């Protein structure tokens, strides 16, 4: 890890900047998969920041599945994101995308479950229509961010609970940026990868349509966690 | 059920109005616990609305635990809310309070779990400080809506995920109105009831403080579902 | 629906027999997808059983996703299982397989989560070894029931909680019969289908290996619910 | 921590024995709440065991909420169980009781949910009858282990899934031993404590009776996690 390359700017919290700079080293393979990071003390000294700042940055990287702490041994690189990640998203924005994804897994597991129990014919038509537009754009390898968002929003509306709709709408920017990055990474991958992503969406719709609440909730969680893995693991985005 | 008493106004969806008017009959005991509601056809005729409108109103009453449908038999009153409910909240607003509660159970189960895993000393101090203010105001039987909201907001902040904070903040009005109604009903009850509500809050804090994610999530869900029951069941609010 | 074909034997509860006979009509397409079943009264008369028996059989068919009740309209065929189902399993045993699957979703969601948190190197080696044997036998289209069971048992052992191991072992017969049917149906399908099933297993292992509890739990639930769908939906088993 | 007091016998795994002996020191207040345990190296040397054995014992103590690891600082006593615990249960058996409790939280959350959706009048009568017997014996401060177990078993039967019943029955010994210890500790506490435990059981029944699946599941999890806390935390058992 060439510490000399790292520089602290003033746009973000120190921990946020440190997160981004370590992320950059992982993506660029300067810090290889399985490699040990410098100690807390080493990182604090190298960056001229306090150890609490180092700990906060490492904690977030661990929460996002990028590094892992082994007790009494140190912190190691767990996953290397695809190289294109930091072309499609600024290094500073990745932690935010991960937080939005985490919140979506919670909220949309519930909306999919409830939609399976409560969706009426109009709700189903709206979900399917967004799905069809998404599939058409994916078929020609130019997936539409708006169609993807509208698919998830229509499911929230079908939950019969406007509060869930408000919750998605008030975090729409972060959600759409996450969709945008995930779609761009998917387009870099094989056709088989694209087919899997289409299949994930279709399964959610089918479980809701069949009124199968448990399957709808699990298919939604599975889809969002897979999307997160495609963002953080270069092997999965192939 | 004296249908003549019911009147349709223009402020809300028809289904929303019908929900409110049936609720009023249940609270006032015009429709007693265990009693069968008129048939879909009967309700549609009496109110001069279509059957889909009747079905939507009944569905929401069922989702909120106020009535239950028995297949091939009809729809029955399941729970009678405390009489004071429609003094503390307008009949029109109750369905909205229930929706906010449902969304909170989902989101705050997650924030409490994550707070148990991620809260630092400052987060814990902020949660405990809001709890203490809430307990002080409850001890003199004037619970503070703001302290209650701040307690839940501090837990969301301790989850380390700003998106959850945004989700609570953007539905703050509905959350605070729900807290207000629940607190007013609690004040009508016995001291034993007040003690139980204090205990629920304290248990959430203790599970987070102990780093016990599963207990923190379950204590939070339990607290919010109990609050919902206190709003919808006169027996529980005693 | 040709009611004359149905006959009551004495081996099972009446509701269990009725379940099996309606299932047979659905699989054989005598009762087509989307078609309405006779009324409760009609079924009771045709089979010479009481209405509670009819209701119990319909309830179980609904729980298993095979029929759906639409309020005030009737009960309809929701999914048609693959024709081979009643070649690979006796009609009488299908309800039991579904119940075992339901219990597995609950228990194994927990074992996969805990394994991600607690598995040591030996646990991981044991899970991977069972996975490799399963993949080798799937590659030549003769998946091994024992390897599949051992994969799931090794995950339970890795949860560090022997009680979960006991729970799987004491229902091993039902679990292995379910695996056997699912595998036989998978072998009837395309190579793409077989690859998907292999992928589901591999994802569970990878999430456990990465220490990602949430993903491990969700991948496990998703895998088991997909297996259930492959048993009950001829379209999904293609 | 007076290490000289500790002795290794041959009845159990080394990690299991070490767990029991550290537990004994915590219960007896030799190791006080908040106090730091000796280092891994220190424990390994003192007991003449390998560090992996020490790590396994500490991991189980942490999973059971008795100690907590603070990264880079050490392991600390988190909760002190009531002194009577090691009178009512052998030191060797406590880890097993905790594992049974963990499995029950998973399985019985599901059985309570499903019972709320599926219980018929006979199921409800059976659950209520066991509850009444339990309440009668608790009222005279001699709670019946069998009634408590039968209450939980009747809920599993009401789930309509025999596999869950089998899972409880095949771990019945461990479950009953856990109930026995929890009840004995409850009897040591105040009448207020006893009333709370009765209330927890009654709430589960009421949620199942009301057909409220979410509340039934959460009330069950909450009850079992509270029971676990009463076993591991002397403050909660007062």
TrEMBL record, chains A, B, C, D:
- In the record, which residues are listed under signal peptide? none
Q: Which residues form the HTH gntR-type domain?
A: 12-80
- State if Transcription regulation is listed as a keyword: yes
Species name for this entry? Sulfitobacter geojensis
The record's SUPFAM superfamilies line, in alphabetical order, gives:
GntR ligand-binding domain-like, Winged helix' DNA-binding domain
Q: Tell me any Pfam family this protein matches.
A: FCD
Sorted alphabetically, the keyword list is: DNA-binding, Transcription, Transcription regulation
Q: Which GO terms describe its molecular function?
A: DNA binding; DNA-binding transcription factor activity
Q: Does the keyword Transcription apply?
A: yes
Domain of life of the organism encoding this protein: Bacteria
**What PROSITE patterns does the entry give?**
HTH_GNTR
What is the recorded name of this protein? Answer: FadR family transcriptional regulator
